[in-house]
Amino acid sequence: MKLSVNGIDVFWEEHGDGEPLLWLHGGMGCGADWRHVFPEPPRAFRLIAPDLRAHGASTGDSSTFSFRQCAHDVLALLRHLEVARVKAIGLSGGGIVLLHAATLAPALVQAMVVVSAPPYFPAEARAIMRQYSEATIGDAEMARMRERHTRGDAQIQDLVKMCRAFADSYDDVSFTAPKLAAITARTLIVFGDRDPLYPVSLAFELHRGIPGSNLWVVPNGGHGPIFGAAAPAFRETALAFLRRQSLEP
């Protein structure tokens, strides 16, 4: 499905029936990445999975991209779908978009799971961003990216350019304590303790800043510790949280 909004076309897919559940993919990914975590749409949820601006089948490019702008795109999509309250999962860059959405429209986001999303870009992440290129991506991941991004290698090259530009961006990802304090969503923060981009200390900063938030530090977890062998534990914990069940085993 496609919606023209804010100067671009946003593509999204929907699956299932029930409470709206927004899935926001990570940078360089696409909405369909939810399938790498959930073998089927979560029961009793209406899964809404957009491709963020410039990603997947959505249009836009590095010149118009910001995580804040992506949040405005997502909020416009939810208005179009007449969703007044939503639960959400945001991974990495999608988690940053979700933090923006939760500060821009606190009454809209009822509950959220924020995975590997920092309040700001630390020096170690900026150093990696500056070196990011097709060569560092590798052939196998480039093949996967060609499957995700429908506008070909020019789109992927622009996404790489966008990622490098994050290294010198300071305003877009800058969630200060007062901004975080505006969030009213029930929040679960998920972080790997071996994340090469964002040290786990940033998770504690989010936890301190977001009122009443919960923190799950995944032992031996890297960046986005929700795929592969980690997926079953994430599914169980995240869905229990979103369904208001106890987090205790």
What do you see in this structure?
The protein is an alpha/beta fold. It has one domain: Alpha/Beta hydrolase fold, catalytic domain (Rossmann fold). The protein is built from nine helices and eight strands. The chain has helices at 67-80, 93-104, 123-130, 134-137, 139-148, 153-165, 177-181, 201-209, 231-242; strands at 2-5, 8-15, 19-24, 45-50, 86-91, 109-115, 186-192, 214-218. Strands 1-2-4-3-5-6-7-8 form an eight-stranded mixed sheet, sandwiched between helices. α8 (201-209) links the parallel β7 (186-192) and β8.
Outline type: globular
Order of helices and strands: EEEEHEHEHHHHHEHEH
Question: What number of domains?
Answer: 1
CATH topology: Rossmann fold
Strand residue content: 15-25%
The count of DSSP E runs of length 2 or more, i.e. the number of strands, is 8
Which CATH architecture would you pick?
3-Layer(aba) Sandwich
Strand order of the largest sheet: 1-2-4-3-5-6-7-8
What is the share of helical residues?
A: 25-40%
What's the level 1 CATH class? Alpha Beta
Radius of gyration, in angstroms, nearest whole number: 17 Å
CATH superfamily: Alpha/Beta hydrolase fold, catalytic domain
**Mean pLDDT across all residues, rounded?**
96
Number of helices: 9
For the termini, the CA-CA separation is 39 Å
Q: What is the SS-derived class?
A: alpha/beta
- Main beta-sheet strand count, sense and barrel state: 8 strands, mixed
Oligomer: single chain
Q: Extract low-pLDDT stretches.
A: none
Task: Give short descriptive properties of this protein.
single chain; 249 residues; alpha/beta; Rossmann fold; globular
